[in-house]
Structures are given as C-alpha cells and as structure tokens.
Design goal:
InterPro entries: NAA25_NatB_aux_su
Radius of gyration: 33 Å
Strand order of the largest sheet: 1-2
Structural class: mainly alpha
Region (Disordered): 658-681
Distance between the termini: 100 Å
Largest sheet: 2 strands, antiparallel
Number of domains: 2
Oligomer: single chain
Shape: elongated
Helix content: 55-70%
Number of strands: 2
Strand content: under 5%
Length: 814
C-alpha cells in the first residue's frame, strides 16, 4: 500500500492535470475504507473530491467516476436528513458536499452555450441523483431549455421515421441532452397525480409522457443520441408500453453491428408472448417505411445470426493478432467460445419453434406439417441450455439511479429467462413426444378393431418410439415440477381482485428505466407455471398418455378418476385464476376491463376502473397461448379416437341399413321408431363391445363437453378482444394524447407550460399513432386467431357427434 501511494503521488506531481492518477488515488482510498486498512495514511477525502470535481467536472466521465464512491469516502455524520419519506436518510456530510457542487456549478454559468460549463452543471446534477439528492423535474427542464433554447421550437417533421434523411449537425450528442435524460428519470420517479384512475393507467400515462419527451424534445433534434433511443426501447418494452415492434426502428437507428445484438438484443427480445401478439406484419411498421422489418423477421434475422456470429468473432481474433493487441486475444477467444450459448440466441430459437408448433397450427393435421425442423432445434437448444450465458449489457444505460434495494438483480432476471426457455422447451417436447404416442395409439386402436377375439386377447406392446416418448415425458414432468418449485406459490393468490391482478402484471413507472431490467410482481414464468397454462399442459399430456396406456394395458392402467381429472383440466383450466372465478367455478370474463363502444367519454380518463392496454395485452397473450395449447391437445386426442369414430360411423350405417330392410320386409314405415331388432348382432360389434372401447367412447363423449366449453370461452374472449380492437382503431391515438396531456397539466404549474409549451403534448404525434397501431395489430392478431380456433373447434365437434349416441347405439343396436 505504501508503494502504491508513493507511486500515485509521484504521478500526480508529475502530471497534475491528468485524470488517471487522481482517479487511482480515490479508488485506492475507497478500497482502504471498505477493507478497513488501519495503516493507510490519513487523507482528507473531502478535499480530494472537491479537487477532482474542480479539475475534471467538465469531462463527461467525471460523474461516473464519483457518483457511487462518495458514500464510501465521506465521513458519516450522525445527524441525517431524509430527502423523501420512502427513501433512506442521507448523511448531512454528503448533502453538504452535493449542495456545494450544485451551487458552484450553477454560479459558474455565464454563457448558456459554453460546453465546459454545461458539463460541470450536468456532472453535479448526475452525482446528486446517484446519491439520493435528486433535482426537481422543473429545474431540470429549465436547465435543458436554458442551454438549448432552439429546441423550444416544435419539430416540423417527426424524425422517428427512419425514411427521413439525417440533416442534423455533428453536435447531436450535445451536453444538454443529459438534462433531458435526467428529467425523464425524475418524471418516472414522481408520484402520479391521476389518483382517481387505477395504477396501471397512472403508470401508463407517465410512460407515455416520458416517451413523448424523448421523441419530441430529444430525438427530433438529436437523432444520433443513442441514450435517447435506448431509453425509448425501455419504455416500449413488454412491461412498459408493450410495443416491442416499435423498438426495431430504434435499434436500426443505433446502427448496431451484428455482434452487438448479442449484448443489446434484450431491448427487443424478452420472455413473453411476443410472436403470439406481434408476429405478422403490422400497419405500424408499414408507416415507419424504410426497412419494413417486422418482429417475426427480426427474430428470424437473429436466428440466422446465431449461426454466423462465431465466424465474425473469429475475425475479431485475427484482427487482434494483426494489430498486435495481444491483451484482447483472450477476451475474443472466450467470447467466440460462449457465443453459441448466448441467452438471446437460445431464447429466439425457442420462441420461433414454439410459435410454429404451439400457436400457428389450428389442428393436429397442420401441426404435422410444421414438425419438420422442430426436433432438430429442440435438440440444439437442449444441448446448450445448461451452459447458457448471460450476455446482456446494461452498462450502456447511464441512468445515475441510486443503488436499488430489494429489487431484482441481473442474476434473478437471468434466472427468469432460463425458466422461460425451459418451459418453452418442455411444451414443445411434450407436443413432439405426444405425437409419437398418438401414432402408436392409432396403430393399436386399428389393430384392436380389426382383430378377432383370440387376437384381441394377446398382450399388446408399445413400439420403441412410444416407449422412448413415455420415458421423456416422465423426465419432463419432473423438470416441470422443479420449475414450479422455483416460483412463488402465492403468485396468483396474492392479488385480491382483477384490478390488483392486472396491476401486478406490469412494472410501475419508477422501474421502467432502471438497469438491470426489473420484473413485475407477477413474473410471466410464474404466471404460466402456476396458472391455467400448466393445468392444460399436464392435463393434455396425462390424457394422451392415459389413452395409450389404456390401449396397451387395459382399463386398469388408466383409471376413470385419472381420466376425469385430465378432462376437467382441459375443460375448465382458467379456474386457476381465482380473481376470475365466480360462484359457478367458471371464469367470469365480464370482470375483465373493456372499453364500451359508442361511449361519449374517454375510456382511460373517464372510467375509474379502466386499465391500460399494456396489462390487458399481457393477460390476453397468456390466455390465448393457454387456449391454443388446449385446442391443440384436444385435437390430438380427437385424432387418437379417429379409428374408433370411423368404426362407429360404419357400424351405425350398417345397422341402419339392416333395420331398413327389416322394416321393408314387414311392410312398416321408415318413420316408425317402434321396431326392435331381433337379429343376431354383428360379430364385429361384439368384438368392439369391450371395456377398453367403452372407455374410449366415454372419452369421446366427454370431449364433446370439453369442446363446447372451449367454444364458449372463445366466444367470450373474442367479445373482449374485439372491444379493445375497436378502441385501438377508433379512439386509442386521441386518448393517448389526452391522458399524457392531462398528466402534464396535473404535474407542472401553468407558468412552466406557458414558458415551455413543448413539454405538453398538444397534438397526436406520429409516435402516438404508431403506439395505437401496435395495439391494434396485437388485438387484431388475437381476434383473428380466436376466430380460426373457433372454426376448427366446430369441425372437431362435428366429428365427435358420433359419440353422442354411442350409449344408445349399444343399448338399442340401431
């Protein structure tokens, strides 16, 4: 330590204006304080900090150097001041230092356009925020427009459109941009004034106003500022404004190299039903023009990149050799080795496979056409998931937030991503393995129907593929149980009603801009693993496995209790959301919020129990994926029963023809139902009249009830989705303007808006239109999918009608 201090002191004396030695001195002192080095020389830390601020506050990096070591270096004073009731108290010694540097930086302002003076003031504000002494939003807005008064003029062209040429000057990254970034952070932390609305509407309005400021006050004047674009991506995320497809143009504006998608792809790709809601081309992207990249094509691009990224990393390795940057060789080598395990690549692969296998197919027959590459992708992800690497980089976001307490860490959010990928893997693999079981079950059923009594009595065995499928399903059932145990068992029971439930699905505005990415109270992986999705997955697999066991081992291998439980899980899985269940043990879909068509007043502002489209979209995305999985598994069960269904139809026709001949021979009318067939029964019918086939007939009859229930659910969900779809098309853009303008008027005094009128939204901007179009796209995709699933359920119901008269057929021998 003595040698280090001497070396640093010598460097400071030799180069007093160089930042490195003085930063090393502060860092060494901070380590000495943390580790309680008693032999370290006594140093006045306050003087060191003041000297450092005096010499280097005009450099943009100064705030990052000092922001988080001040609480370590300054002595603790027993008298403390609490800045906010909800925040920890602040040492008076730190408070005095912060007030001093703020006052000095503001007093030094003589020329508003002086870059060094702007940086010194910005540095003081940034350090103050990081140490829980935030500057008021009004003061930050005033500072911003004081240094860039030309931005008080509204932009003639909304430059979020990527087709507009970049005519901005080289001063895009001007120092004053930092004040707007601080102002947006301060606005996110502010207490919402829309107290008569639900908290989702309040948080939604804050996110809208922040996005408007970044778009109109920032990006419209400084398109090359990547901090603005990164912040806008955070707001457009799934837990914010829920418009992830609008983040794609922002990523294009960042001009990221391919490898940067490994570390920054999380801005767009995150765990959730993204492709389910926004897979198809949207009007929002059409308005953005230029690249026309949709969310689906973006996923496909990342999928292709995952196969070529290693070669690009190797090129960097060769370049390091050529430039003799040997210190980077180890870094590049490690990066090249871990690229194939990057979290964003594995997530993209599984989302594409899941969407193609579990969401797109309306019927099992269509599923068979999409199964081609699913097994290969599944094997690849399964071989890499245990070595998955967290490649997300949150250091590019400079928010100067104070240290978070009791919040989600990067490790926790990464664990959530891994759980999500594993759940997708289990679902896709279950569908693939159940397909193998289905093929085997169909062969067994046909064999039983076509065999004589002696052949039917021979013990039946599964083929090798079915045996392997059964083993894998057992392993996946254990993995699913393990995933469930990793989640909070009070996830769905904690919210007291639907309003609380919807509120817990999204992030409060205070956490939208923080890094690392935070998660809402109800995490999506927990919602799926503890909710109706898990019930459908387990019930569907249990039913298909049970039918196979029934055909192989007889009725004892699949009890009627197990059969009933599985069918009930498919018929009414949504009872797992207690906030929706009423007295009849059925979900009350009318409890979910919906805009009323033809209403004279604004939905978001005038309705007390209104909720933001963000929370509704998230819930509907989960419900729709649960519904589609249910429909697919029911379709698979119907396919297993097809040999029996065809047999019953043929037998029914044969018996009707025989009955007609008897009536004709006796001279009786065809319409007379009083005839009783006395002929000896057909041998084939007697062979079919076994316990196994009676059980299959029971399953077929119960599936009619399941399909009817799903049809009713589809009708209720369609009404709900269509109400939101109409709102998105007709009212959303205007209401987005109204709610953000209303919040602005409630949060800021009239004189501030008179002085800076651009801070208040006064017309429907392109951003508001794009957000409304994104919501329209999401709800339209859900509505279209529900109509398609309903039509297919109708076809399944028609095919199952033969089981309605099975008991009558067996009793009367028609």
């Amino acid at each position: 330590v003595t040698q280090l201090t001497q070396l640093i002191s010598g460097a400071i004396e030799t180069h007093p204006t160089i930042r490195g030695p003085r930063l090393a001195e502060l860092d060494l002192l901070a380590n000495a304080v943390r580790r309680n080095w008693h032999k370290y020389p006594r140093v006045n830390a306050l003087n060191l900090l003041e000297t450092y601020v005096k010499n280097f506050a005009s450099k943009p990096i100064c705030a990052l150097d000092l922001a988080y070591i001040i609480p370590v270096l300054l002595p603790s004073v027993h008298t403390q001041k609490q800045v906010r009731p909800s925040e920890p108290s602040l040492d008076v010694g730190i408070l005095r230092f912060l007030e001093d540097i703020i006052r000095h930086s503001e007093d030094e302002i003589t020329i508003p356009g002086n870059v060094q003076q702007i940086f010194r003031r910005l540095c003081a504000y940034q350090i103050a925020r990081a140490n829980r002494h935030p500057i008021p939003t009004q003061q930050l807005i005033c500072a911003y427009f004081t240094h860039v008064p030309e931005r008080l003029t509204p932009p003639n062209i909304n430059l979020t459109n990527t087709e507009v040429p970049d005519r901005t000057s080289s001063l895009d990254l001007c120092p004053a941009d930092g004040f707007l970034l601080l102002a947006t952070s301060s606005l996110a932390d502010s207490t919402n004034r829309l107290t008569h609305n639900t908290c989702t509407v309040g948080n939604f309005s804050q996110a809208l106003l922040i996005a408007h400021w970044i778009d109109q006050l920032g990006l419209a004047h400084a398109r090359s500022n990547h901090h603005f674009r990164l912040r806008l991506c955070s707001l457009l995320s799934l837990y914010g404004l829920a418009c992830p497809e609008l983040s794609i143009p922002q990523a294009e504006g960042l001009e990221m190299k391919q490898l940067l998608f490994v570390s920054l792809g999380h801005m767009i790709v995150s765990p959730g039903p993204l492709l389910t809601l926004w897979a198809n081309p949207s009007t929002a992207n059409a308005q953005q023009g230029a690249s026309g990249v949709t969310l689906l094509t973006f996923f496909q691009r990342l999928h292709a990149l995952s196969g070529t990224s290693v070669s690009e990393a190797e090129e960097c390795l060769v370049a390091a050799y050529r430039r003799r940057v040997y210190t980077k060789i180890g870094e590049f080598t490690k990066f090249a080795e871990t690229l194939k395990y990057a979290d964003v690549f594995l997530l993209v692969r599984m989302e594409l496979v899941y969407w193609q296998i579990a969401v797109v197919p309306d019927d099992f027959d269509i599923l068979l056409e999409n199964l081609g590459g699913a097994s290969k992708e599944l094997e690849l992800v399964a071989s890499r998931i245990d070595k998955i690497v967290d490649c997300r980089d949150f250091s590019v976001s400079q928010n100067f937030d104070p240290p978070l307490e009791n919040h989600v860490t990067q490790e926790n959010s990464f664990a959530h991503t891994v759980r999500w990928i594993r759940l997708r893997m289990i679902t896709v693999r279950a569908i693939c393995q159940c397909t193998q079981l289905l093929m085997s079950s169909v062969k067994l059923s046909e064999h039983l129907l076509n065999s004589n009594d002696q052949q039917a009595s021979v013990k039946r065995e599964s083929d090798s593929r079915a045996v392997e499928a059964m083993k894998q399903l057992q392993i996946d059932d254990e993995l699913l149980t393990d995933l469930i145990q990793q989640t909070d068992d009070s996830t769905l029971s904690a919210p007291k009603d639907v309003h609380s439930f919807l509120s817990d699905l999204v992030l409060p505005s205070q956490l939208l801009l923080t890094a690392p990415t935070q998660l809402p109270r109800i995490q999506l992986s927990s919602l799926y693993l503890r909710g109706p999705y898990k019930i459908v997955l387990e019930s569907g697999v249990r039913l298909l496995v049970g039918i196979h066991q029934l055909l192989v081992g007889g009725h004892e291998s699949f009890s009627e209790v197990q059969q009933t439980t599985a069918l009930q899980g498919l018929e009414n899985p949504f009872r797992a959301i207690p906030q929706l269940v009423k007295e009849s043990d059925r979900p009350d879909w009318t409890a979910l919020p919906r805009p009323k068509s033809g209403a004279d007043k604004s939905y978001l502002l005038a309705t007390d129990d209104a909720h933001s489209p963000t929370s509704v979209l998230l819930l509907l995305g989960m419900l729709y994926e649960t519904f589609t999985l249910d429909c697919l598994l029911v379709s698979m069960a119907r396919s297993v029963l097809r040999p029996r269904s065809h047999y019953l139809q043929q037998m029914s026709k044969r018996q009707r023809r025989k009955a007609a001949k008897i009536r004709k021979s006796k001279g009786m009318s065809e319409t007379n139902p009083g005839i009783e067939v006395t002929d000896e029964n057909d041998d084939s019918y007697r062979r079919a009249d076994t316990t196994v086939f009676r059980r299959l007939d029971q399953i077929g009859s119960s599936l009619i009830s399941v399909v009817s229930s799903l049809t009713q659910t589809a009708s209720s969900l369609t009404d709900l989705v269509d109400a939101w779809l109409h709102w998105s098309r007709k009212c959303a853009a205007q209401e987005l303007l109204e709610i953000s303008a209303s919040l602005c008027m409630k949060m800021f005094p009239d004189d501030l808006m008179t002085q800076f009128p651009v801070i208040k939204p006064n017309h429907v901007t392109t951003l508001f239109t794009q957000i409304a179009s994104s919501y329209e796209h999401g709800f339209a995709h859900l509505s279209s999918g529900l109509h398609q699933k309903s039509a297919n359920l109708g076809r399944i119901l028609n095919e199952l009608q033969v089981y309605e008269c099975t008991d009558k057929l067996a009793a009367c021998h028609l």
